[in-house]
Amino acid sequence: MRRRRWPMDSLLTFSLSRFRDVPAKDACYCVLALFTLRCLSDDAAAGSVISVPEDADFRTLYAARGESGLAERIDAALAALGHANPQAVGALFTAFSFARDLEMPATRRDRALREVLGDLAPGIFMAHPEEQSSAARESVVNALIEHIAADAGRDPDVASAPAGLVGLMAALASPQAGERIYDPACRFGELLAAAGLATGEADGSAATHFFGETDDPVLAAVGAMRLLIARRAEQNIRCNAPLLQPAFAEGPGALARFDVVLSTLPPRIHPATVPSQRHYVQDPYRRFRRGTPAKQHPEMGFLQHMVECLAPGTGRLVGLFSRGVLVRGSDEQEVRRLLLEEGLVETVIALPEKLLFEHRAAPVLLVLRAGRTDDDVLLLDASDQYKARRHQNVLEDSHIARILELVAARRDVPGVARRVALDAIRAEDFSLHLPRYIRQDSGAPRSQAALRAEHAALLGELRERAAEVDALLDEGP
After folding, report:
1. Which InterPro entries does the annotation name (predicted)?
2. pLDDT in tens, 397-447
């Protein structure tokens, strides 16, 4: 009987079902590792810069998939791949062992691995040339990871930013071939992969370099695999806590600089990765000289870290944050003041609620640029730019195009966008709360989305102020 050929975007998602009762993150790693091996084996056969030893080739594993000890042979193949490519692969596959860490009985484990190898079989999966493009491969990986994130709901350990959002962020950053691109909280590597596609760089080119950090070793491996699958060999993803000690430095007290810095902050920042107040003050890189972030709000620390990583004169920053960064007082107000007066803040975009799987509140995009000669800020209310689905709102191509059009025009649109002079922001004590600047037409009813977004922002501001007061009271007289 002829075997059914699955659509590419569905097959890896189907392969996940082979690993029932395995943690979602581990299942994702297993499927992606085998997919990576298949892609690199195909690329090596076509003459790529990646070297795949015969005993590590996907076809070798596939041909012997019925033999015992399959998990051990997969581990050995991945280790051999790393030894053969110390720069591009190196220790990538050391974070997880199929034989040691895959929590399944050995017999069921090897059966599942045998079935996944069959799912990815040559001649059945990626059988057509157009399915070998980097864009097609990224689409497959994106479908897999979005399925995991949606299935896990609000589990922050497998949270991933959706495709529409990362596509918008990559377009706003406008990465170019040959640039250095960095994400300090890279989750599954989705933003780095989207930035790679946005460069328009030819498949297999090594001109663009990708850098990322995450505090989870398995996610670091997944992010690196994602870039390798898309033929981005010049990548360096580290398991690290960047606020405590950045992974990329050019010398004592000198951070590495990047042309593009972009990130969607992790939904749960582990307390152990957040610096103490003393650490912020004594940071050898002086990243937090504009103001010390509160312990309960490390996202302002991430923003300052990202700013300090910008290449002078050319660096662009696109970050997704809670709306609290627009309004919180104390040291955060001072940080906003300095960023604004230095002319770094270019655009603020209020997004719809329920864009993220794990966090339902409406977020905000901040776009900063080094070397600006203007000090005005474009404020854009895009809270109504979405398509509602049952559990999540999504940004479709039409919404992304509309937002990019408004950003490019940088002109006032009543009730939607306003180009605000620094003096006007100064008069509002450097608050960037959008309703202070963008007035709705009194003759037109406000959308439910806009009302919900403002309501959530106001409640968030109230909670932030209450937390600040509680902290002061706890300190005592």
Report:
1. DNA_Adenine_Mtase (IPR051537), DNA_methylase_A-5 (IPR003356), SAM-dependent_MTases_sf (IPR029063)
2. 999 999 999 999 999 999 999 999 999 999 999 999 999 999 866 445 556
Residue 313 has pLDDT above 90, yes or no: yes
Summarize pLDDT for 59-69 with one digit per residue, the tens.
999 999 999 99
Torsion sign across C-alpha atoms 345, 349, 354, 360: positive
Entry pTM = 0.86
Q: Count the Cβ atoms, other than its own, within 10 Å of residue 296.
A: 12
Question: pLDDT tens digits, residue range 260-276?
Answer: 999 997 656 777 788 88
